[in-house]
């Protein structure tokens, strides 16, 4: 398996801060695939199960984050597939492999064709979670989601939203107001966020090394 390697073309790359981050064994808990993108871009060891997965409901995700010390010791269990969809945001119907923890937190796995193998990997990754160094990343889809996320009692947390609510941990992305931008990303806010806040389409608004090292001045502009 190819190991992640850092992209040294990241804007304003600080080698000293990067080594500090590399040695910190950070766990990124994310409600989408964004956490995996960050690990890959920075070439960090993946110490989280929340890669290539999604948690639809913010209240479930917050429960997961705030009680990760408990869920760390519980197994993810497959939800048997049926022809029935999972209700998603804006009443979208979602058909994809899924599993739950303790019958109350559901995770979706849009990038797998073998949910059994994926669950085994999840449970192994859960053992690697570093409870002493957590960061939380979320894509938000409503005002309610944003306020709930902002209440999480963890210092390193950052959410992304298309409205400015004046919340310290929620970054406003005004570019989404541009109709051309929305069309370019198929009107999927999550797709836009994945590219906009990493260094795929240009300079990311977030200095992820600073954020993950606990600095408050992680916004580049």
What does this structure look like?
- This protein has nine helices and nine strands.
- It is an alpha/beta fold.
- It has helices spanning 15-22, 34-42, 58-66, 68-71, 115-126, 143-150, 179-184, 189-196, 208-212; strands at residues 27-30, 76-78, 86-87, 93-94, 98-101, 105-108, 134-139, 157-161, 170-172.
- The model has no long low-confidence stretch (mean pLDDT 88).
- 31% of the residues lie in helices and 15% in strands.
- A hairpin with a 5-residue loop joins β3 and β4 (93-94).
- The strands form three sheets. A four-stranded parallel sheet has the order 1-7-8-9. Strands 2-5-6 form a three-stranded antiparallel sheet.
- The longest helix is centred in the middle third of the chain and has 12 residues, at 115-126.
List keywords for this structure.
alpha/beta, 9 helices, 4-stranded parallel β-sheet, 3-stranded antiparallel β-sheet, single chain, 221 residues
List the helices and strands and how they pair.
Blueprint: H1 15-22, E1 27-30, H2 34-42, H3 58-66, H4 68-71, E2 76-78, E3 86-87, E4 93-94, E5 98-101, E6 105-108, H5 115-126, E7 134-139, H6 143-150, E8 157-161, E9 170-172, H7 179-184, H8 189-196, H9 208-212
Parallel strand pairs: 1-7, 7-8, 8-9
Antiparallel strand pairs: 2-5, 3-4, 5-6
Query: Kindly, what is the distance between the CA atoms of the first and last residues, rounded to a whole number of angstroms?
Result: 36 Å
Number of helices in the DSSP assignment: 9
Q: Could you spell the SSE succession in H and E letters?
A: HEHHHEEEEEHEHEEHHH
Q: What is the strand tally? A: 9
Report the mean per-residue pLDDT as an integer.
88
């Amino acid at each position: 398996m190819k190991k992640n390697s850092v992209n040294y073309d990241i804007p304003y790359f600080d080698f000293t801060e990067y080594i500090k981050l590399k040695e910190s064994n950070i766990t990124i808990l994310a409600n989408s695939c964004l956490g995996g993108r960050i690990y890959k871009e920075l070439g960090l060891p993946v110490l989280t199960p929340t890669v290539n997965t999604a948690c639809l409901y913010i209240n479930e995700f917050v429960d997961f984050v705030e009680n990760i010390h408990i869920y760390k010791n519980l197994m993810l269990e497959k939800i048997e597939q049926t022809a029935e969809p999972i209700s998603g945001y804006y009443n979208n119907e979602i058909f994809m492999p899924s599993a739950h923890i303790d019958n109350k937190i559901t995770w979706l796995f849009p990038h797998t064709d073998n949910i059994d193998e994926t669950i085994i990997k999840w449970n192994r990754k859960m053992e690697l979670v570093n409870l002493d160094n957590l960061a939380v990343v979320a894509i938000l889809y409503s005002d309610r989601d944003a306020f709930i996320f902002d209440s999480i009692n963890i210092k390193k947390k950052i959410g992304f939203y298309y409205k400015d609510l004046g919340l310290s941990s929620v970054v406003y992305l005004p570019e989404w107001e541009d109709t051309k931008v929305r069309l370019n990303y198929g009107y999927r806010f999550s797709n836009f966020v994945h590219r906009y806040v990493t260094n795929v389409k240009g300079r990311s608004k977030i200095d992820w090394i600073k954020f993950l090292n606990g600095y408050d001045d992680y916004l580049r502009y």
